Amino acid sequence: MSVSSDLNRQIDQLTRCEILKEIEVKALCAKAHEILIEEENIQRIDFPVIICVDTHGQFFDLKELFKVGSGDAREKNYLFLGDFVGRCYNSVETFLLLLALKVRYPDRMVLIRGNHKCRQITQVYGFYDECLRKYGTAAVWRYCTDIFDYLSLSAITDGMIFCVHAGLSPSIQYLDQIRCIDRKQEIKLGVVCHPVSLAIYVVSQFNRTNDVHMICQAHQLVMEGFKWHFNERPHHREVAVYH
Predict the structure, then answer these.
(1) 243 residues of the chain, pLDDT tens digit each
(2) Residue 187 and which of 147, 194, 211, 219 are 20 to 30 A apart at CA?
(3) Which of the following is catalytic: 116, 213, 235, 243?
(4) Neighbouring residues of 183: CB distance < 8 A, sequence distance ≥ 6
(5) 116 is annotated as an active-site residue
(6) In this structure, what are the phi and psi dihedrals at residue 139, rounded to the nearest 5 degrees?
């Protein structure tokens, strides 16, 4: 069986909310590692793109999202802004489906890291326990958390919209500073995980300095699903796409 046909089978299986065998998870993560290790801290993705946030193991919401988007990564470009696991009951299926789609369609699927993508947080919010319950060991949890270390930190769509999980760090003024970070490690408080409440002058200065039109962030919650901050003048805009 070819690699692509095997991946297609796994994607179909995961789409039915059926877990893979542990040995298959290990192999999938190994393939994903080969792709992710070559990606930059700021990953580029072309328009048109569907930007999605904080799935948190909500598998059936993910399926609905693909339905609303008129297709998954086989047909569309997708950018997921982190926090794929934790809090809900199907984190394993959710993350492995996204990872399988990433391996099968690496140029169409961009996954970036959120604050829940570390070993400590995943033990608090249920992902570790879910892996133990479904596999009987912590091996799958280790495979997945090792992959978290290699996820990109942010993305830019067509050079216009800077996309990040939780906002701007006070330590970062230039995109080149993000490009220089050694991301392949457990998240620590600081540049990689230090979101701040974005004031208009912070957004305006960052956007002008880095020649981007707006910032798109995830991480928080509003009932409308997304929220525009500030105004719609170029270089002053931020949109929060909430879960």
Answers:
(1) 567 889 999 999 999 999 999 999 999 999 999 999 999 999 999 888 998 888 888 999 999 989 887 777 777 899 999 889 977 789 999 999 999 999 999 999 999 987 655 677 788 778 999 999 999 999 999 999 999 999 999 999 988 899 998 778 778 889 999 999 888 877 654 445 555 556 677 888 888 999 998 888 886 766 777 777 776 555 445 454 444
(2) 211
(3) 116
(4) 41, 113, 149, 150, 151, 152, 153, 192
(5) yes
(6) -60, -45
